[in-house]
Each structure stands twice: as C-alpha cells, then as structure tokens.
Amino acid sequence: MDKARNQFITNSIRIKNEEIFLKRESILSFDSKIDLSQFLKDSYKKLALRYPKYHKMDSLCKLGILGSSVLLRSQHFNADTALVFSNASSSHDVDMKHVKSMESIVSPAVFVYTLPNIVLGEISIKHKLQSENVFFIEDKFNADLLVDYSETLLNSGKASSVVCGWIELKNDQYDVLLCLVSNNGEIPFTKENLEELYRFENE
Q1: Share of the chain above pLDDT 90, in %
Q2: Mean pLDDT of 142-147
Q3: Residue 13: helix, strand or coil by DSSP?
C-alpha cells in the first residue's frame, strides 16, 4: 500500500477575518473593527498562551505562534515534527517597517524579522522542535506543493508528523491555515482536502 495514503489531517486551524477556527469550529471571534495588533494581543490573552517572548515578535511570527500553539495543544507530536509553510508576501510588512526605519536609526529588533522563515525558528523554539523546516514563496495557496513536500518528509522517515500550511500577511491583512498531518485521524491528507480546508472562510 502507498504510504502516503496512511497520512491524515489530524488537526487544522484557520485564522482570518478576526476569527479563529479549530477543525472548522469557531473558538474565538472579535468585532470586525479590531485591528491586527489588537487582535493578536486579545487572542493571546483569551487563549492563555503564557509565552512572554510573543510580545517582542513581529506580526507574522505572532500569527505562527498563535496558530501552532492552538493547533498542537492537547495533540501528541514529537520533536521531529517538520514545518512546511508558504505564503505570497514573504515578510512584506516587517520589510516595510525596516525600510522606514532606515530613514533614521535602523532597529535591530525589526531587522531580525526580515526573513519569512524566522517564524519557523520561533515555532521550533516554542515547541522544542528539532526538525526539518522549509518556507516556500508562492503566488497563491499551492496545495500540491504542500502535500508533495510533506509526504516526502513523512515517507522518507525524516519526520513522524508535519505542520504544513499557508501563513500570509500583507498590509495587516492576514490569512492563515495550518494543519497537523500524522498517521492518526479521519481526514485523508490529500490536495483536495487541503484545498477544501483553505476555501473555508476564504470564499
């Protein structure tokens, strides 16, 4: 039997439009007038994350920590859980802040986040992961790429599970889908099922 067919979407989280969904069920929502900064602060408090370093991160990393913490809460995962992320805008928002800061004094606190894969490092530190990770820049959500790369890691034995998905942020507009993929679950890990999860709250 093809090993890929033994992989399932164990858990999923969707963050968009001032709302957080876990397995398609809303667990937290705010007024549509709330801005990104306040949304990230209030979500941290409501979800009781208790991770002080969160407050020093850029918004992309905060979205990653927020999403991964809820996704992995009460889930069994190992230190070799791989991270396979993608987006379209790289680290656009913090890049713009860095460019603006160059007009006066360059801020090291901003510069350190001018690569999108920094979010992978922050998630790895938070969850004590020692695993493969990769961040792809794509024009749009690409389920084929995420499934193919994740399956390669799983089938090669380089990872026992994978957190994969889309974490887009541009001009304070955010669009996040993260999925925990393992050999436990009911939803087969396929392109079609991943696309269906992404389309949820995105149509």
Answers
A1: 77
A2: 98
A3: strand
Which conformational region is residue 50 in: left (phi greater than 0), alpha (psi within -120 to 50 degrees), or beta?
left
The CA-to-CA distance between both ends of the chain, in Å, stands at: 36
pLDDT in tens, 34-60: 999 999 999 999 999 999 999 999 999
CA distance 84 to 131: 11
| Burial degree of 143 (CB within 10 A; 0-12, 13-18, 19+) | buried
Residue 136 DSSP SS3: strand
pTM for this one?
0.87
What's the fold here for domain 3-199? Peroxisomal Thiolase; Chain A, domain 1 (3.40.47)
Length of the chain, in residues: 203
Strand-pair category, 82-87 with 162-170: parallel
Enumerate the domain spans of the chain: 3-199
